[in-house]
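tool=predict chain=A
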Amino acid sequence: MANQRKVAGGTTRLTQLIRIAIIAASAPMLWSETALAEFNMSFIHGDENLSNAEAVAQGDALQPGVYPFDIYVNLTQVDHKDVTFRQVKGQTASQPCLKVEDLRNYGIKLPETLQAGSCVDLPALVKDATVSYDAAVQQINISVPQTMMDLSAIGAIPPSMYDEGINALFANYNFNYNKNSYRRDDADDSEYMFLALNSGLNLGRWRLRNNSTWDKQSGSSSNWTNVSSWAETDIVPWRSRLVMGQASTNNSVFNSFQFRGVQLSSVDDMLPDSLRGYAPVVRGVAATNARVEIRQNGYVIYSTNVAPGPFEIHDVYPHTNNGDLQVTVNEADGSHKTFSVAYSSVANMLREGIWNFQLTAGKYHNGNGGYQPKLIQGTAAYGMNYGLTPFGGAIIAEHYRSAAVGIGKSLGSWGAISVDGSISDTELANGDRKQGQSFRFLYSKSLNQMGTNFQLAGYRYATSGYYDLSDAVQERNSWRNGIYANDYWDPNDLQPGQPSWSNNQKRTRYTARYGNKRERVELSLSQQLWAGASLYANVSHQNYWGVSGNDRTIQLGYNDGFKRISYGVYLQDTRGQYGYSDRSVNFTMSIPLDWGQSNNSTTANFSAAHSKQSGDSYSTGISGTMLDDRRMNYSVSTGHTQSSGQSSNLNLGYSSSIGNIDGSYAYSSKYRQEGLGLSGGLLVHSGGATLTQPLQNTILLVEAKDAKGVRLENQPGVTIDRFGYAVVPSANPYRYNYVALRTEDFGPGLDVPVASKQVVPTEKSVVKVSFDTFKGVSLLIHARLGDNGYPAIGAGVFNESGRNSGTVGLEGATYVSGVKAGEKLTIKWGPKADQQCVLPIPADVGDKQAAMGYQELTLQCQKL
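tool=predict ok
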């Protein structure tokens, strides 16, 4: 508890308690020159009372010793460490020892003559600098003029704040089940199960990871796939990361590919205010309760169930930094739609003096077996003045060599461009040797004044002799018995009701020439129109040498609203290299039914669509959320599709602190579909095992003993379990993350002196955030000494573990919480034995009921 200042006496006990509480809460703010001027010491009588009251007014009830404190410089936290407090001559309150090297690490300029390891009187050295502390919340506040601070980028976080986390083991799962029953003799019922399992082990600074999938389909055996395994550690002084195992290269210079080996690369996340990289948003429209599958490089990397209508998937985590995403929408009636989402990004422009690099050595490994050449790749980029960023790289592999050089240029208000050229020398499987060139132009721009955002605009041209590494590997894999054989996947091969994962969908085309890439065009932009209206467009086109087919996807979308009613129109045109094509148009509208009268939402939805492959469809229904923090969501709809006729759909989802569950049911005259989704995680740590919501890369383990049922702010469904733990499943690495307990959930007798904290986790760490909690009773104690006097005003009240539990006020009154029955509290107003006494708390204090939430009693304070 904090200290208190003197106020006029009240006429009732409740008034007195309120005044004591207000004084105690405001005392930590009194340690400033202004506060001291406001605190009139003439009201205090007696030398001993005056001395202690002055200490209270300066925000101190700390005795000399070592205490954990958060350290702030100019309102920004820069450290959390154990700080030594000592008595300084001329100061009533004990003062923190701020060491020379620590202050310099915080960016404060100090004379070079200062001795290392010495305590610094900062206000005496730096004009207008101040140092204060708040004992109640364990926070030191340092204010320094900006002229005496080292310049740093906006948002820079000192490495001393980085938290490497604890040793921990975790497993993360995402399970989906679908069962389709058809009412036709020519269509068999089908079941499909898919499990994505991501597991890891953190040991010190090392992170060991594994991504695996399991699937089981009707009429076939189950399949377990080890997608990737690796170990990594961050090297903070180098702003780098070391990876060993199966991983992928970036795509800043060359196209990304997967490998098995070792890699050392720079980490942009450690830079302040740096971009986190481009990630695609997958958009589409489902006509029924559908299962959306997303593949990359042949792997199913994402699978989820969606309700009828438009969907947006933001949480796709590709396993490589390049490689188009193949999206399949499997409808409940057995029909399906496919399209691709381009996934590549403009090379980041670097600030002046910033470098990026990546060194990779190992073997090519795309998970599909076949040819796996040994290779070495190196890339580098450096930010220069005038907005220039030159970059380049080289690849040396078996039967393949390539080099590239380019430059990026900031155009100021016109955006940024990047131009590069590559050459390659490839030994083909048929004995030929090919040399070629490739040229690429990329442009990125946000026209804020016009509301236009060019996320990506790019063009690449390659001569017929140019092969990137992936093309060179695929060429050797395709060479069979003197001819090129290309496997491809065409959804048109499926019969109605046949599941999309059937093996017979795979075909092979034979050609005398391998079709390597020729031209590729990509464009992604969004345009804000009038208030609430927006337009977006995504275009990708790829053609090949030696073959007439091409891949093309065009998406257009328009969103608008009238008051709280929103609507949108979406068009999509898809064409595949081997002849598949689809064209669709969709209209959606949503009308809120609660009109802001509830914390939860209820919305009426309508959609209509026409597709070349699926025909006409429409759907209408309601959706919304339930429970106090929107942990449950639901949707009910009915609709009509050309293939299945009238259908009805139900979806339910629930999020809890131990995981998420969602279910779906669809019914029509031609089929019935049931779906189930389970996702969550298990975190094993030194305190036991904790079930969690689905875990992401970086995790926070919250410890708050005796706080069962207390929720976390801004974390729906996450509560402290009966063992005193909760898990925040996703945190931002190398950024401040705030964790706060909901104080309205605190039960009687629960005292949490500091209910919010902030941490800066490193990438893929498991950071433990511990809150000191004290469970007991709340007491208003009137302490008396043996001579009928009172302990000195401002004296500290400490429990048996040394915790500062309160401060003595007027006539020995003190308010304490979290006190256990039968324990002994010690009141100290000085270091000597005759300046201390003991308050024995009655053993039956917890049995008494208190209507006000606290108990009031008078106790004799016994001298030591």
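The chain has a mean pLDDT of 81. The longest strand covers residues 168-182.
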